[in-house]
Design a protein that fits this description.
By secondary structure, this protein is of the alpha+beta class. Helices cover 55% and strands 15% of the residues. The chain has a three-stranded antiparallel β-sheet. Helix 1 crosses helix 2 and helix 1 crosses helix 4. The radius of gyration is 15 Å and the shape is globular. The two termini are 28 Å apart.
């Protein structure tokens, strides 16, 4: 497997919001899911993940509730709030603009 890629500024918020869109996940589950979906291209460590989760919760975009893992360990499970769903829509729209702009620049090389 190749070396994980660095996330662009602001991309982590989008990935987290999208990852919990279908349903609540605990922190490590969010990190694992991002790594799985991106085939290991993005590996989000705890030093980046947990500050981002706290920041998104402070903004009112995520709600965290304590629960119990299958192992019996307690963990906080994060889910989207209605404000988070609205923000995810905005983040997706912005990402499409960035993606299109970068692809236009790359197309100029050809």
């Amino acid at each position: 497997m190749s070396k994980p890629a660095e996330l662009l500024q602001g991309t982590l918020d989008l990935l987290i919001l999208r990852t919990v869109e279908p349903g609540a996940l605990h922190g490590v589950g969010i990190s694992d899911r991002i790594e799985q979906v991106t085939n290991g291209v993005f590996v989000v460590g705890p030093g980046s993940l947990f500050p981002a989760l706290h920041r998104l919760a402070e903004k009112g975009w995520l709600d965290g509730e304590w629960g119990t893992l299958e192992s019996g360990r307690r963990a906080k499970f994060y889910s989207l709030t209605p404000e988070g769903r609205t923000q995810l829509t905005l983040e997706k729209r912005n990402w499409r603009k960035v993606f299109t702009a970068v692809n236009q620049v790359l197309a100029e090389e050809a």
